[in-house]
Amino acid sequence: MIALTSDPIDVPAALRFLQSEQAGAIDFFLGVVRDNTQERPVDRLEYEAYDRMAISEMQKIADVAQQQWPILRYTIIHRKGTLQIGDIAVLIGVATPHRAAAFEACRYIIDTIKQTVPIWKKEVFTDGESWVNAHP
Amino acid sequence: MIALTSDPIDVPAALRFLQSEQAGAIDFFLGVVRDNTQERPVDRLEYEAYDRMAISEMQKIADVAQQQWPILRYTIIHRKGTLQIGDIAVLIGVATPHRAAAFEACRYIIDTIKQTVPIWKKEVFTDGESWVNAHP
Amino acid sequence: MNSSISVLLFGITRDLTGQSAVSVPLAEGASVGDLLTQIHQKYPALAGIRSLLIAVNGEYAESEQVLTRHDEVALIPPVSGG
Amino acid sequence: MNSSISVLLFGITRDLTGQSAVSVPLAEGASVGDLLTQIHQKYPALAGIRSLLIAVNGEYAESEQVLTRHDEVALIPPVSGG
Protein backbone atom coordinates (compact mmCIF):
# COMPACT_ATOMS: atom_id res chain seq x y z
CA MET A 1 0.00 0.00 0.00
CA ILE A 2 1.44 3.32 -1.15
CA ALA A 3 0.09 6.74 -0.24
CA LEU A 4 0.97 10.41 -0.45
CA THR A 5 -1.20 12.32 1.96
CA SER A 6 -1.81 15.68 3.59
CA ASP A 7 -3.29 13.97 6.66
CA PRO A 8 -1.37 12.77 9.71
CA ILE A 9 0.02 9.24 9.26
CA ASP A 10 -2.01 6.65 11.18
CA VAL A 11 0.54 4.20 12.60
CA PRO A 12 -1.95 1.75 14.16
CA ALA A 13 -3.83 1.51 10.86
CA ALA A 14 -0.55 0.78 9.06
CA LEU A 15 0.23 -1.94 11.61
CA ARG A 16 -3.18 -3.57 11.15
CA PHE A 17 -2.66 -3.54 7.41
CA LEU A 18 0.74 -5.26 7.73
CA GLN A 19 -0.29 -8.09 10.01
CA SER A 20 -0.94 -11.47 8.48
CA GLU A 21 -0.79 -15.06 9.69
CA GLN A 22 2.47 -15.69 7.86
CA ALA A 23 4.25 -12.58 9.14
CA GLY A 24 6.88 -13.30 11.78
CA ALA A 25 8.65 -9.94 11.54
CA ILE A 26 7.52 -6.39 10.92
CA ASP A 27 9.94 -3.51 10.59
CA PHE A 28 8.65 0.02 10.72
CA PHE A 29 10.68 3.06 9.88
CA LEU A 30 9.35 6.50 10.80
CA GLY A 31 10.97 9.67 9.54
CA VAL A 32 10.11 12.41 12.00
CA VAL A 33 10.54 16.21 11.86
CA ARG A 34 13.45 17.12 14.12
CA ASP A 35 13.91 20.45 15.86
CA ASN A 36 17.26 21.17 14.20
CA THR A 37 19.44 20.67 11.13
CA GLN A 38 23.17 20.94 11.75
CA GLU A 39 22.31 22.72 14.98
CA ARG A 40 20.22 25.38 13.26
CA PRO A 41 16.79 25.48 14.95
CA VAL A 42 13.94 24.40 12.67
CA ASP A 43 10.49 25.89 13.01
CA ARG A 44 8.64 23.65 10.52
CA LEU A 45 9.06 21.76 7.26
CA GLU A 46 7.14 22.21 4.04
CA TYR A 47 6.89 19.16 1.79
CA GLU A 48 5.91 19.41 -1.83
CA ALA A 49 5.50 16.54 -4.30
CA TYR A 50 5.03 15.89 -7.98
CA ASP A 51 2.18 13.63 -6.94
CA ARG A 52 1.71 11.34 -9.91
CA MET A 53 5.42 10.70 -10.32
CA ALA A 54 6.08 10.43 -6.57
CA ILE A 55 3.54 7.62 -6.37
CA SER A 56 4.86 5.81 -9.43
CA GLU A 57 8.47 6.11 -8.21
CA MET A 58 7.49 4.76 -4.80
CA GLN A 59 5.72 1.89 -6.56
CA LYS A 60 8.89 1.10 -8.52
CA ILE A 61 10.89 0.95 -5.31
CA ALA A 62 8.33 -1.37 -3.74
CA ASP A 63 8.37 -3.60 -6.83
CA VAL A 64 12.15 -3.94 -6.71
CA ALA A 65 12.01 -4.69 -2.98
CA GLN A 66 9.40 -7.37 -3.57
CA GLN A 67 11.64 -9.03 -6.13
CA GLN A 68 14.56 -8.96 -3.74
CA TRP A 69 12.98 -10.02 -0.43
CA PRO A 70 10.05 -12.28 0.51
CA ILE A 71 7.72 -9.44 1.44
CA LEU A 72 4.26 -10.46 2.62
CA ARG A 73 2.90 -6.92 2.91
CA TYR A 74 4.33 -3.44 2.84
CA THR A 75 3.18 0.09 3.35
CA ILE A 76 4.82 3.33 2.24
CA ILE A 77 3.11 6.53 3.33
CA HIS A 78 4.61 9.97 2.73
CA ARG A 79 3.20 13.23 4.05
CA LYS A 80 3.05 16.46 2.11
CA GLY A 81 2.22 20.01 3.17
CA THR A 82 3.36 21.76 6.34
CA LEU A 83 4.77 19.58 9.12
CA GLN A 84 5.59 20.59 12.65
CA ILE A 85 8.33 19.22 14.88
CA GLY A 86 7.48 15.68 15.96
CA ASP A 87 5.21 15.01 12.97
CA ILE A 88 5.81 11.81 11.03
CA ALA A 89 6.92 12.68 7.50
CA VAL A 90 7.23 9.15 6.19
CA LEU A 91 6.33 5.67 7.34
CA ILE A 92 7.76 2.51 5.78
CA GLY A 93 6.46 -0.81 7.05
CA VAL A 94 7.52 -4.23 5.83
CA ALA A 95 6.21 -7.62 6.96
CA THR A 96 8.19 -10.76 6.19
CA PRO A 97 8.37 -14.32 7.57
CA HIS A 98 11.80 -13.67 9.19
CA ARG A 99 13.48 -10.56 10.54
CA ALA A 100 16.57 -10.08 8.37
CA ALA A 101 14.48 -9.43 5.27
CA ALA A 102 12.19 -6.99 7.10
CA PHE A 103 15.12 -4.83 8.20
CA GLU A 104 16.90 -4.98 4.85
CA ALA A 105 13.84 -4.23 2.73
CA CYS A 106 12.72 -1.38 4.98
CA ARG A 107 16.14 0.21 4.86
CA TYR A 108 16.36 -0.23 1.09
CA ILE A 109 12.98 1.46 0.62
CA ILE A 110 13.73 4.54 2.73
CA ASP A 111 17.26 4.93 1.33
CA THR A 112 15.95 4.77 -2.23
CA ILE A 113 12.99 7.07 -1.58
CA LYS A 114 15.46 9.74 -0.56
CA GLN A 115 17.31 9.34 -3.86
CA THR A 116 14.62 9.05 -6.51
CA VAL A 117 11.14 10.13 -5.41
CA PRO A 118 10.15 13.67 -6.51
CA ILE A 119 9.31 15.07 -3.11
CA TRP A 120 10.94 18.24 -1.88
CA LYS A 121 11.41 19.52 1.62
CA LYS A 122 11.88 23.14 2.60
CA GLU A 123 13.29 23.78 6.04
CA VAL A 124 11.83 26.88 7.59
CA PHE A 125 14.13 28.26 10.25
CA THR A 126 13.40 31.01 12.68
CA ASP A 127 15.61 33.24 10.49
CA GLY A 128 15.17 32.02 6.91
CA GLU A 129 14.37 28.99 4.81
CA SER A 130 16.10 26.55 2.50
CA TRP A 131 15.21 23.75 0.06
CA VAL A 132 17.12 20.69 1.26
CA ASN A 133 19.79 19.27 -1.10
CA ALA A 134 19.19 21.94 -3.74
CA HIS A 135 22.50 23.75 -3.49
CA PRO A 136 25.99 22.31 -4.06
CA MET B 1 12.14 1.64 28.78
CA ILE B 2 12.31 -2.13 29.28
CA ALA B 3 9.36 -4.36 30.12
CA LEU B 4 8.41 -8.01 30.35
CA THR B 5 4.66 -8.28 30.36
CA SER B 6 1.72 -10.67 30.16
CA ASP B 7 -0.42 -7.95 28.58
CA PRO B 8 -0.71 -7.21 24.86
CA ILE B 9 1.98 -4.80 23.65
CA ASP B 10 0.65 -1.28 23.09
CA VAL B 11 2.36 -0.01 19.94
CA PRO B 12 0.90 3.53 19.98
CA ALA B 13 2.02 3.97 23.60
CA ALA B 14 5.53 2.83 22.64
CA LEU B 15 5.54 5.32 19.79
CA ARG B 16 4.48 8.18 22.05
CA PHE B 17 7.25 7.25 24.45
CA LEU B 18 9.88 7.31 21.69
CA GLN B 19 9.01 10.67 20.18
CA SER B 20 11.12 13.66 21.11
CA GLU B 21 12.01 16.94 19.47
CA GLN B 22 15.50 15.72 18.56
CA ALA B 23 14.34 12.43 17.02
CA GLY B 24 14.54 12.36 13.23
CA ALA B 25 14.29 8.59 12.86
CA ILE B 26 12.44 5.86 14.71
CA ASP B 27 12.86 2.21 13.88
CA PHE B 28 10.41 -0.30 15.29
CA PHE B 29 10.86 -4.01 15.10
CA LEU B 30 7.92 -6.26 15.91
CA GLY B 31 8.32 -10.00 16.34
CA VAL B 32 4.95 -11.56 15.60
CA VAL B 33 3.62 -15.11 16.10
CA ARG B 34 3.50 -16.82 12.71
CA ASP B 35 1.18 -19.63 11.74
CA ASN B 36 3.98 -22.05 10.88
CA THR B 37 7.55 -23.13 11.61
CA GLN B 38 9.29 -24.94 8.78
CA GLU B 39 5.85 -25.52 7.30
CA ARG B 40 4.52 -27.26 10.40
CA PRO B 41 1.27 -25.50 11.43
CA VAL B 42 1.51 -23.69 14.77
CA ASP B 43 -1.51 -23.39 17.06
CA ARG B 44 0.01 -21.07 19.66
CA LEU B 45 3.25 -20.17 21.46
CA GLU B 46 3.97 -20.29 25.16
CA TYR B 47 6.66 -17.91 26.42
CA GLU B 48 8.32 -18.34 29.77
CA ALA B 49 10.97 -16.10 31.32
CA TYR B 50 13.38 -15.98 34.22
CA ASP B 51 11.97 -12.56 34.92
CA ARG B 52 14.64 -10.87 37.01
CA MET B 53 17.46 -12.03 34.75
CA ALA B 54 15.54 -11.41 31.51
CA ILE B 55 15.10 -7.78 32.51
CA SER B 56 18.73 -7.32 33.58
CA GLU B 57 20.00 -8.97 30.37
CA MET B 58 17.75 -6.72 28.26
CA GLN B 59 19.12 -3.76 30.20
CA LYS B 60 22.69 -4.82 29.42
CA ILE B 61 21.86 -4.99 25.73
CA ALA B 62 20.30 -1.54 25.84
CA ASP B 63 23.35 -0.17 27.69
CA VAL B 64 25.72 -1.53 25.05
CA ALA B 65 23.53 -0.14 22.27
CA GLN B 66 23.51 3.28 23.94
CA GLN B 67 27.30 3.28 24.04
CA GLN B 68 27.49 2.33 20.37
CA TRP B 69 24.83 4.58 18.80
CA PRO B 70 23.42 8.06 19.61
CA ILE B 71 20.12 6.74 20.97
CA LEU B 72 17.69 9.38 22.19
CA ARG B 73 15.10 6.94 23.50
CA TYR B 74 14.48 3.22 23.26
CA THR B 75 11.85 0.75 24.28
CA ILE B 76 12.15 -3.02 24.59
CA ILE B 77 8.96 -4.87 25.48
CA HIS B 78 8.74 -8.67 25.57
CA ARG B 79 5.57 -10.66 26.12
CA LYS B 80 5.32 -13.80 28.20
CA GLY B 81 2.53 -16.33 28.62
CA THR B 82 0.37 -17.80 25.87
CA LEU B 83 0.39 -16.00 22.51
CA GLN B 84 -1.88 -16.62 19.56
CA ILE B 85 -1.05 -16.24 15.88
CA GLY B 86 -0.70 -12.56 15.01
CA ASP B 87 0.16 -11.50 18.57
CA ILE B 88 3.23 -9.30 19.01
CA ALA B 89 5.83 -11.22 21.04
CA VAL B 90 8.46 -8.49 21.16
CA LEU B 91 8.70 -4.82 20.28
CA ILE B 92 12.00 -2.98 19.92
CA GLY B 93 11.84 0.74 19.23
CA VAL B 94 14.82 3.05 18.82
CA ALA B 95 14.76 6.82 18.24
CA THR B 96 17.89 8.56 16.94
CA PRO B 97 18.67 11.83 15.17
CA HIS B 98 19.42 10.03 11.86
CA ARG B 99 18.18 6.81 10.32
CA ALA B 100 21.28 4.61 9.98
CA ALA B 101 21.74 4.42 13.75
CA ALA B 102 18.06 3.62 14.34
CA PHE B 103 18.17 0.63 12.00
CA GLU B 104 21.52 -0.64 13.28
CA ALA B 105 20.70 -0.31 16.97
CA CYS B 106 17.27 -1.90 16.56
CA ARG B 107 18.75 -4.85 14.70
CA TYR B 108 21.53 -5.24 17.24
CA ILE B 109 19.04 -5.30 20.09
CA ILE B 110 16.73 -7.95 18.62
CA ASP B 111 19.63 -10.12 17.41
CA THR B 112 21.24 -10.04 20.86
CA ILE B 113 17.99 -10.63 22.72
CA LYS B 114 17.63 -13.89 20.85
CA GLN B 115 21.12 -14.95 21.97
CA THR B 116 21.33 -13.98 25.63
CA VAL B 117 18.00 -13.17 27.28
CA PRO B 118 16.54 -16.04 29.38
CA ILE B 119 13.17 -16.29 27.70
CA TRP B 120 11.95 -19.58 26.28
CA LYS B 121 9.37 -20.26 23.65
CA LYS B 122 7.40 -23.48 23.27
CA GLU B 123 5.73 -24.04 19.94
CA VAL B 124 2.44 -25.83 20.33
CA PHE B 125 1.49 -27.59 17.11
CA THR B 126 -1.78 -29.24 16.32
CA ASP B 127 0.01 -32.57 16.89
CA GLY B 128 2.62 -31.95 19.58
CA GLU B 129 4.87 -29.32 21.09
CA SER B 130 8.53 -28.37 21.21
CA TRP B 131 10.82 -25.95 23.06
CA VAL B 132 12.56 -23.90 20.38
CA ASN B 133 16.38 -24.27 20.10
CA ALA B 134 16.56 -26.83 22.93
CA HIS B 135 17.60 -29.87 20.90
CA PRO B 136 20.74 -30.25 18.78
CA MET C 1 6.23 21.40 -32.62
CA ASN C 2 7.61 24.75 -33.65
CA SER C 3 6.18 26.60 -30.74
CA SER C 4 6.73 26.02 -27.06
CA ILE C 5 6.37 23.43 -24.34
CA SER C 6 4.96 23.81 -20.86
CA VAL C 7 7.27 22.70 -18.06
CA LEU C 8 6.03 21.98 -14.51
CA LEU C 9 8.16 23.42 -11.72
CA PHE C 10 8.54 22.29 -8.13
CA GLY C 11 10.41 23.23 -4.99
CA ILE C 12 13.32 25.58 -5.44
CA THR C 13 12.69 26.05 -9.18
CA ARG C 14 9.14 27.16 -8.46
CA ASP C 15 10.37 29.55 -5.78
CA LEU C 16 13.13 31.02 -7.98
CA THR C 17 10.88 31.62 -10.98
CA GLY C 18 7.78 32.47 -8.97
CA GLN C 19 5.75 30.16 -11.23
CA SER C 20 4.52 26.56 -11.00
CA ALA C 21 4.80 26.11 -14.78
CA VAL C 22 6.72 27.95 -17.49
CA SER C 23 6.45 27.94 -21.26
CA VAL C 24 9.73 27.30 -23.08
CA PRO C 25 10.19 27.86 -26.84
CA LEU C 26 11.29 24.67 -28.51
CA ALA C 27 11.73 23.47 -32.11
CA GLU C 28 10.11 20.33 -33.44
CA GLY C 29 12.25 17.23 -32.78
CA ALA C 30 14.00 18.87 -29.83
CA SER C 31 15.37 16.62 -27.12
CA VAL C 32 15.35 16.75 -23.33
CA GLY C 33 18.93 18.09 -23.51
CA ASP C 34 17.80 20.90 -25.82
CA LEU C 35 15.03 21.77 -23.40
CA LEU C 36 17.46 21.99 -20.49
CA THR C 37 19.71 24.32 -22.50
CA GLN C 38 16.72 26.54 -23.26
CA ILE C 39 15.62 26.57 -19.62
CA HIS C 40 19.10 27.57 -18.45
CA GLN C 41 19.21 30.41 -20.99
CA LYS C 42 15.78 31.72 -20.13
CA TYR C 43 16.15 31.33 -16.34
CA PRO C 44 19.77 32.02 -15.37
CA ALA C 45 18.67 32.06 -11.70
CA LEU C 46 18.40 28.27 -11.89
CA ALA C 47 22.15 27.90 -12.50
CA GLY C 48 22.93 27.62 -8.78
CA ILE C 49 20.93 24.41 -8.34
CA ARG C 50 22.99 21.29 -7.77
CA SER C 51 21.33 19.31 -10.55
CA LEU C 52 18.25 19.54 -12.74
CA LEU C 53 16.61 16.53 -14.33
CA ILE C 54 13.66 16.30 -16.66
CA ALA C 55 10.72 13.97 -16.25
CA VAL C 56 8.54 13.17 -19.24
CA ASN C 57 5.10 11.75 -18.55
CA GLY C 58 6.11 11.02 -14.98
CA GLU C 59 9.37 9.17 -15.80
CA TYR C 60 12.95 10.37 -15.54
CA ALA C 61 14.14 11.05 -19.10
CA GLU C 62 17.58 10.72 -20.70
CA SER C 63 18.92 13.79 -22.45
CA GLU C 64 18.58 12.17 -25.92
CA GLN C 65 14.83 11.59 -25.57
CA VAL C 66 12.83 13.55 -28.17
CA LEU C 67 9.90 15.55 -26.88
CA THR C 68 6.45 15.71 -28.43
CA ARG C 69 3.73 18.30 -27.95
CA HIS C 70 1.58 15.89 -25.88
CA ASP C 71 4.24 15.12 -23.28
CA GLU C 72 3.81 16.19 -19.68
CA VAL C 73 7.22 17.66 -18.90
CA ALA C 74 8.54 18.51 -15.44
CA LEU C 75 11.78 19.97 -14.15
CA ILE C 76 13.08 17.93 -11.21
CA PRO C 77 15.50 19.67 -8.83
CA PRO C 78 17.38 17.51 -6.29
CA VAL C 79 14.82 15.53 -4.31
CA SER C 80 14.67 15.60 -0.52
CA GLY C 81 11.82 13.39 0.59
CA GLY C 82 11.83 11.13 3.61
CA MET D 1 27.76 -25.74 52.49
CA ASN D 2 27.81 -29.47 52.94
CA SER D 3 24.22 -29.99 52.07
CA SER D 4 22.38 -29.09 48.93
CA ILE D 5 21.55 -26.16 46.71
CA SER D 6 18.24 -25.22 45.13
CA VAL D 7 18.31 -24.77 41.36
CA LEU D 8 15.56 -22.96 39.44
CA LEU D 9 14.39 -24.67 36.27
CA PHE D 10 12.76 -23.18 33.16
CA GLY D 11 11.46 -24.27 29.81
CA ILE D 12 12.47 -27.71 28.68
CA THR D 13 14.32 -28.52 31.92
CA ARG D 14 11.18 -27.80 33.91
CA ASP D 15 9.11 -29.95 31.56
CA LEU D 16 11.59 -32.88 31.65
CA THR D 17 11.91 -32.93 35.42
CA GLY D 18 8.32 -31.95 36.14
CA GLN D 19 9.58 -29.41 38.70
CA SER D 20 10.28 -25.68 38.69
CA ALA D 21 13.15 -26.08 41.17
CA VAL D 22 15.26 -29.04 42.26
CA SER D 23 17.56 -29.60 45.21
CA VAL D 24 21.04 -30.83 44.26
CA PRO D 25 23.54 -32.19 46.85
CA LEU D 26 26.75 -30.19 46.76
CA ALA D 27 29.91 -30.02 48.90
CA GLU D 28 31.20 -26.75 50.35
CA GLY D 29 33.43 -24.90 47.91
CA ALA D 30 31.82 -26.55 44.91
CA SER D 31 31.89 -24.71 41.62
CA VAL D 32 29.34 -24.11 38.87
CA GLY D 33 31.05 -26.89 36.91
CA ASP D 34 30.62 -29.29 39.84
CA LEU D 35 26.95 -28.38 40.03
CA LEU D 36 26.43 -29.12 36.34
CA THR D 37 28.08 -32.54 36.79
CA GLN D 38 25.76 -33.30 39.70
CA ILE D 39 22.71 -32.18 37.75
CA HIS D 40 23.62 -34.37 34.79
CA GLN D 41 24.08 -37.38 37.08
CA LYS D 42 20.83 -36.87 38.93
CA TYR D 43 18.75 -35.99 35.84
CA PRO D 44 20.00 -38.04 32.88
CA ALA D 45 16.93 -36.91 30.94
CA LEU D 46 18.59 -33.48 30.56
CA ALA D 47 21.46 -34.95 28.49
CA GLY D 48 19.62 -34.38 25.21
CA ILE D 49 19.53 -30.60 25.61
CA ARG D 50 21.82 -28.67 23.29
CA SER D 51 23.51 -26.71 26.06
CA LEU D 52 22.94 -25.93 29.71
CA LEU D 53 24.32 -22.84 31.41
CA ILE D 54 24.15 -21.77 35.01
CA ALA D 55 23.13 -18.33 36.22
CA VAL D 56 24.12 -17.20 39.69
CA ASN D 57 22.18 -14.29 41.17
CA GLY D 58 20.80 -13.45 37.76
CA GLU D 59 24.14 -13.43 35.90
CA TYR D 60 25.63 -16.03 33.57
CA ALA D 61 28.38 -17.81 35.54
CA GLU D 62 31.67 -19.35 34.41
CA SER D 63 32.25 -22.96 35.36
CA GLU D 64 35.04 -22.02 37.84
CA GLN D 65 32.80 -19.78 39.94
CA VAL D 66 32.42 -21.08 43.51
CA LEU D 67 28.86 -21.29 44.84
CA THR D 68 27.70 -20.15 48.27
CA ARG D 69 24.55 -21.11 50.14
CA HIS D 70 22.98 -17.71 49.60
CA ASP D 71 23.26 -17.74 45.83
CA GLU D 72 20.15 -17.82 43.65
CA VAL D 73 21.08 -20.49 41.11
CA ALA D 74 19.23 -21.19 37.86
CA LEU D 75 19.73 -23.69 35.08
CA ILE D 76 19.52 -21.95 31.69
CA PRO D 77 18.65 -24.11 28.67
CA PRO D 78 19.10 -22.58 25.19
CA VAL D 79 17.12 -19.35 25.06
CA SER D 80 14.52 -18.66 22.38
CA GLY D 81 13.03 -15.25 23.04
CA GLY D 82 12.08 -12.78 20.40
Supply the key terms.
heterotetramer, A: 136 residues, alpha+beta, Aldehyde Oxidoreductase, domain 3, 5-stranded antiparallel β-sheet, 4-stranded mixed β-sheet, 9 strands, 40% strand, elongated, C: 82 residues, Ubiquitin-like (UB roll), 5-stranded mixed β-sheet, 2 helices, 5 strands, globular
Structure commentary:
- The complex is a heterotetramer, with 2 copies of chain A (136 residues) and 2 copies of chain C (82 residues).
- Chain A has 136 residues and is of the alpha+beta class.
- Chain A has one domain: Molybdopterin biosynthesis MoaE subunit (Aldehyde Oxidoreductase, domain 3, Alpha-Beta Complex).
- Chain A is built from 3 helices and 9 strands; from the N terminus they run βαβββαβββαββ.
- In chain A, the strands form 2 sheets. In chain A, strands 3, 4, 6, 8 and 9 form a 5-stranded antiparallel β-sheet that branches. A 4-stranded mixed β-sheet of chain A has the order 1-5-7-2, sandwiched between helices.
- In chain A, a hairpin with a 2-residue loop joins β3 (36-37) and β4 (40-49).
- In chain A, α2 runs antiparallel to α3 (99-116).
- Chain C is of the alpha+beta class and 82 residues long.
- Chain C contains 2 helices and 5 strands.
- The longest helix of chain C has 11 residues, at 32-42.
- The N and C termini of chain C lie far apart (38 Å).
- The model of chain C has no long low-confidence stretch (mean pLDDT 94).
- Chains in contact: A-B, A-C, B-D.
- The interface between A and B is medium-sized, with 31 and 31 residues.
- β2 of chain A pairs antiparallel with β2 of chain B.
